Amino acid sequence: MSARPLHFNAFIWPNGYHESAWRVVDDDVRGVLGLPYYADIARTAERGLLDTIFLADNIAIPEYRVAHLPQTQFDPISVLSALAAVTSHIGLIGTGSTTYNKPWELARRFATLDHLSGGRAGWNIVTTVTSLAAANFGEAAHPDHADRYARAHEFVDVVTRAWDSWEDGALVGDRPDGVWADRAKLHAPRFHGEFYDVEGILPFPRSPQGWPVLVQAGQSSAGIGLAARFAELVFSGPPSLEAAVKFRTDLHARAAEAGRAPEQVLVLPALMITLGDTEAAAQEKAQRLEDLSSEEFRWQNVLYTAGLDPDAFDPDAPLPAELLDAPAASSRAAQLVEAARAEPTATLRELTSAMKSGAGQYHFVGTPEQLADHILTWQDAGAVDGFTIMGSTLPYELSTFVDHVVPLLQAKGRFRTEYTGSTLREHLDLPRPAGRG
Length: 437
Ligand SMILES: Cc1cc2nc3c(=O)[nH]c(=O)nc-3n(C[C@H](O)[C@H](O)[C@H](O)COP(=O)(O)O)c2cc1C
Hints:
- Belongs to the NtaA/SnaA/DszA monooxygenase family.
- Pfam families: Bac_luciferase (PF00296).
- GO terms for molecular function: monooxygenase activity; oxidoreductase activity, acting on paired donors, with incorporation or reduction of molecular oxygen.
- Keywords: Flavoprotein, FMN, Monooxygenase, Oxidoreductase.
- With 437 residues, the protein is of the alpha/beta class.
- The chain has two domains: 7-276 and 367-428, Luciferase-like domain (TIM Barrel); 294-353, no CATH class.
- The protein is built from 16 helices and 14 strands.
- It has helices spanning 21-24, 35-47, 76-86, 103-116, 132-136, 145-163, 221-230, 241-257, 279-291, 295-305, 321-325, 331-342, 348-353, 368-380, 396-411, 424-428, and strands spanning 7-11, 52-55, 91-97, 121-126, 171-174, 179-181, 191-192, 197-198, 213-216, 233-234, 266-267, 270-275, 363-366, 386-391.
- The strands form three sheets. Strands 11-10-9-4-3-2-1-14-12-13 form a ten-stranded parallel β-sheet, with helices on both faces. A two-stranded antiparallel ribbon has the order 5-6.
- Helix 2 (35-47) packs across helix 3, helix 6 runs parallel beside helix 7 and helix 7 crosses helix 8 (241-257).
- The mean pLDDT is 94.
C-alpha cells in the first residue's frame, strides 16, 4: 500500500519555540527583529521542500512576558510579503483574527499576498483567545467564546465572497477595444448578515489560488465545527496517538456532514522537536532548555493562560480563597483551582511548578531516525497527514530536520523530492475553488 505523501509546515518563532531557546542560541539577540532571520528560516524550509512556513499572530501581549521571551510579533502579512520576494515555491501561511479585523480588509490583504507570491498564501483563521486585545482595538469587551465562533462563521463566509467578487476570466486586457476587465464578470458580495455588511468588489482581480488556503487550529467543539466547515489544513491535534486518530476521524466525519470531501481536510498537528546525533545528545539539549526554564515565567504564565492577571497575585501565598469558590474562567483556571483545593496551603509557586506548559506534551526529543519513525508511525495509524514542525531552537532544529529527517522520508518514498507545482494548493493537492461565472 502506498501511503499519501506527507506534508510539513515550518513554524517560525524567535530563536525557537522553547521558552529558553533565546538563552542557548549563539545569534545576536536582536537578530530576530530583522528580515535576515526570517529569510534564512524560509530559505532553509524551502531547501527542504516543506509545504509552508507559518507565522502566528498575537494582537495583544501581557507585559510580564517581555522579561522572559523575545517579543517579535510583527504583522504576519508584512513579513510574509517580504519572504515572498526571497523564496519561489514555499507556501506562506499567516494568522489573522476574525474577532479584530474587518472581513473585506482581511480578504484584500490575503489576496494581495496570494497575488504577490504567485499563489502561495494561506490564512490561519483564529478567533483570538486573549481578552487584552479588546482594549487595543477600542472595544468595550472581548466577545465570549460562542459569540467569537458565531462571528467567525459569518466572517469566513463573507471573506470568500469577496475573494469570488471577480470571475477568473474578468481581466481581458483588450487593448484594441479599450477594455481592461469585463464588468459583467464582477459579483459584488452585497452581503448583509448578522455581524457584517460588505458591499463591494475587491479592488483587483481574483488571486492565483482563487482562495488562499484556509487553515485553522480550534480545539473546542465550536473550533472543530469551524474547521469542519471551512478548514483545508488543521494545526491542532492531541498528543497521544490514540487520541490523535480519534481527532482526525471525528474531524473528517464532521467535514463529511458539512458536505465536504474529508481527504481535503489535512491534519498537521504542532510538534516541537529537539534533535541530536544520539538520543543522549538530544536529551541533554532538551534538559538544558528545561533547566533554564524560568519558575517566575511558569507561575505568571499559568495565571495568564487561565485568564487571570499575574500582576494581581503574590506567588508566595496560596491562591486567594474567593477564587476557589468562583466559577472557573476557563479549563486552565479550573485545573489550577482543583490543584489549590487539593493542597490548600501550597503557594502559587508550588502549585504551578508541577504544571507543564501545553507545548511540553508535544515535545519530541531524539535522533533524526527516531523522528522519521515517529512521523511514519503516526501517519500509518491515520493520526496525521504530516506535522507542523516547531524547532525548540531555530534555525538549528529546522536545518537538522531538513538535512537529516527529510532525506530519510524521501528514501522511503514518503516525501517529495522536488516541488511539482507552484501554488500552495498544488503542494497540498487541494482543489482550486471554482469561483463565480
Ligand atoms: C499550532 C497552533 C497555532 C496557533 N496560533 C495562534 C495564533 O497565531 N494566534 C492566536 O490567536 N491563536 C492561535 N492558536 C490558538 C487557536 O486558534 C485556538 O484559539 C485555540 O487552539 C483554542 O481553540 P478553541 O477556541 O477552539 O478552544 C493556535 C493554536 C495552535 C494549536
